[in-house]
Amino acid sequence: MLFKDKVIPAIRKIKDFEKVLESGHETIILLESRVSQLQNLVKYAHQYGKKIYVHADLISGLKADKYGIEFLTNNVKVDGIISTRGEVISLVKKQRIVAIQRLFALDSHALDHNLQICKRVNPDYIEILPAILPGIIKEVQEETGIPIIAGGLIRTEQDVKETIKNGAVAVTTSSNLLWEL
Predict the structure, then answer these.
(1) How many CB atoms lie under 10 A from the CB of residue 5?
(2) Measured in Å, how far apart are the chain's first and last C-alpha atoms?
(3) What is the domain range of residue 67?
(4) Cα–chain center distance at 28
(5) Half-sphere exposure for 100 (CA within 13 Å, toward CB)
(6) Torsion of CA 120, 55, 96, 51, to 10 degrees
(7) Residue 4: pLDDT band by 50, 70, 90 thresholds?
(8) What is residue 68's predicted lDDT score, i.e. its pLDDT?
């Protein structure tokens, strides 16, 4: 199992990044950043023994194409990449780092479409949003055989527990109140 933490901090603000560096978490997900900051943030996180995963679609100034993914892998040295786009996940898989397909379960059509993408690109993990859909977590895991991470609308300790109970291997949250569960 790649993720030892059941709750994975998803960082949007630098002050939260600094707080997580001092925590016992092994993994950090960087949701938003600027390409000019990224290399230093990843280097700093690695100095603290943290693995850092970035959401390629949310990095300002980065085009999530072949060259952008090569830059993240070879220059920035991220440990993994998250994306909603299947073509990005395919590029990440070629770089031999962790690929996480983010999937929004908006309705049945979106879910079916995203499942087809996941089956085609075979990410290492699928992150389902929102996490508070217990039946969907089980359905996606059973249909794909890929471990599920769940995020979005996680507001309480009970939400975390229920999501894990329903089959997610970990929960991502930007709520720093839940990081120490």
Answers:
(1) 18
(2) 19
(3) 7-173
(4) 9
(5) 29
(6) -140
(7) confident
(8) 97
Domain harbouring 145, CATH code: 3.20.20.70
Does the pTM surpass 0.85? The reply is yes
Spatial separation of the C-alpha atoms in residues 28 and 14, rounded to whole Å: 12
CA nearest neighbour of 168 among 154, 145, 147, 153: 147
Query: Which pLDDT tens digit goes with each residue over 25-76?
Result: 999 999 999 999 999 999 999 999 999 999 999 999 999 999 999 999 999 9
Whether 178 is covered by a domain: the verdict is no
Burial of 124 (0-12, 13-18, 19+ CB in 10 A): middle
Q: Kindly report the average pLDDT of the chain as a whole number.
A: 94
- Encode 81-96: b = buried (16+ Cβ within 10 Å), e = exposed: bbbbebebbbbbbebe
